[in-house]
Amino acid sequence: MSQTTLETYFSKVDELKPAFIQRLSDAVAIPSVSSDEGLRPQVVEMAHYLKEQLANLGAVDIELKELGTQPPPVINSTLQLPPVVLSRFGKDPSKKTVLIYGHYDVQPALLEDGWNTNPFELVLKDDKLYGRGSTDDKGPVIGWLNAIEAHRNAGIELPVNIVTCFEGMEESGSLGLDELIEQERDAYFKGVDAVCISDNYWLGTKKPVLTYGLRGCNYYQVSIKGPGADLHSGIFGGVIAEPMTDLVRVLATLVNGQGEIQIPGIMEMVAPVTPEEEALYKDIDFDVSDLTAASGSNTALYQSKKDILMHRWRFPSLSIHGVEGAFSSGGAKTVIPSKVIGKFSIRTVPNIESAKLDQIVIDYVNAEFAKLGSPNTATCELIHDGAYWVSNPHNASFTAAAKATKAVWGVEPDLTREGGSIPITLSFEEKLKTSVLLLPMGRGDDGAHSINEKVDMSNYIGGIKTLGAYLHYYAASDTN
Ligand SMILES: C[C@H](N)C(=O)N[C@@H](Cc1c[nH]cn1)C(=O)O
Ligand SMILES: [Zn+2]
Ligand SMILES: [Zn+2]
C-alpha cells in the first residue's frame, strides 16, 4: 500500500463528510430497540435499511439470516428474532478476508429520560453528533459502510475481502448468533482470516485505544408474585405481604454500597492478579477525572487509576437495573403492585464459570427470599448471558490497527480492556479460529446506554479513516 493511496482515501472521507452524516442520521432515525418487543418491527426495518445500503455499495451474497423465535422469558412467545445481515465485498483468493461485526440494535431511549433532544433524531451541536446509537453501535456500523463508499468513490480497490456480520440483538444478549456462527463456520465464514469489531470506546477523550479484553454479562430476573391484582394500599397495606417489599429486601442483599458483591462463591472464582498484570496499568493514559467527566458526577468508589481500571476490567460487578411492574412515573399512586420483577446483571471475568455462577446466584436469591418467611412466591432465572474475552494483542491484526491509528491520530494507541460486554466475541475467536480485534471509534464520555449519547465529529470522521486504513495495513502484513 502506498502512502498516496491512504492520503487519497483520507481526502475522500473528508470530501464525503456531509453524505456520511446523512447516512448516520437515517440510521439513527430508526428506533431499533431490541429489548422492546413493541419495537421489533423497527429493528427488522433497520436490517432492511442495511441490506439496501450494502446493495447500493456493491455487496454480493447479501442475506438476511433468520434466527427463529425469541426464547423465554419473553412475553410474546412467537416473537421473531431480528435477522443477521451477511454480505461480502470481494472474493479474491489472493487477498486476506476480514469479517467485520457490529450491531444495528440500540438501547432504549425516551426524551423524558432527560435527553436534550429527540434521541432518534441525529443532532449536530458543538461538533458532536447526538442521537441513540451514534456511538453504540450505529456510528461504527455506518462507519464501515462509509469506509467502503470512500474506496469506491476514490477508485481505490478494497485491499481485503470483507464479510459483514451485523446483528440486531447485541444489546439483548446476541440471542441466536452463536448457533449461526457454528452453522456458517465452514460456509459463509469459511476463509475468514481476522475479525474486527468496532463497538467499544476509548478509555478517555484524547487517546485512541485498541482493546483486547471484555467482561462478560449474565443477566437475571427475580419475579415476586402475591395478590391476585394490584391493590389499594389503604385497604390492604399492613394486612397482606407486599411483593415489592420482598423484592427490595432481596435485591438489597446482592451488593453493598462499596460495589462489593455479597453473594458468597463469586469472588472466589476470580483469577489472581499477577505481577505482570500489575505493571500494565501504570502506562495507561487515564485518571479519576476521566471517570468524573464521563459519569457527570463525583461518585467514584475508587480514586487511583489502577483501582478504577481493575474494577472496570478484571473484577466482577453487580448492577441492579430496574423493576418491572412497579409504579415508576411522576405523581403519587397509592397502589400495591401484585407482581414485580427485579432485574440485575453480573459482569463476569476470568475464571468465573457461567453455569456455576447461575447456580450460585439462583440458590442465593432463593435462600434470601426464604429467610423473609413471606407467603409470596419468588422465581429467579437467567435472561441471557455472554462470555468474557481476553486475548493476546500481539498479532498482525493489532499491529495493523496500531499503524492505522498512528497514521490517522499521530499517536500510538493504548492497549486496553473494556468493562462492557460484546457477547459474541469469544465465539468468533473459538469457532472461526481467528484473532479478534476491537477497534473503537468513540470516546469514553460518549454516554453509551445513557442520555444524550453522542459521537464527536472528529471521532466519526477519524474513525472512518482508521477503519479503512486498518484494512490496508492488515492486507500488507506478512502473516495473520
Ligand atoms: C460494549 C458494547 N457496546 C455494549 O454496550 N454491550 C452491551 C452488551 C450487553 C450484554 N448484555 C446486555 N447487553 C453491554 O455491555 O451492556
Ligand atoms: Zn455496542
Ligand atoms: Zn451497548
From TrEMBL:
MF terms (GO), sorted A to Z: identical protein binding; metal ion binding; metallodipeptidase activity; omega peptidase activity
Pfam families: M20_dimer, Peptidase_M20
Sequence positions that bind substrate: D199, H232, T334, R347, S421, H449
Top-rank lineage group of the source organism: Eukaryota
Co-factor binding details: Binds 2 manganese ions per subunit.
CDD domains, per the entry: M20_dipept_like_CNDP (cd05676)
Marked site: Important for catalytic activity: H232
Protein name per the record: Peptidase M20 dimerisation domain-containing protein
Record organism: Babjeviella inositovora NRRL Y-12698
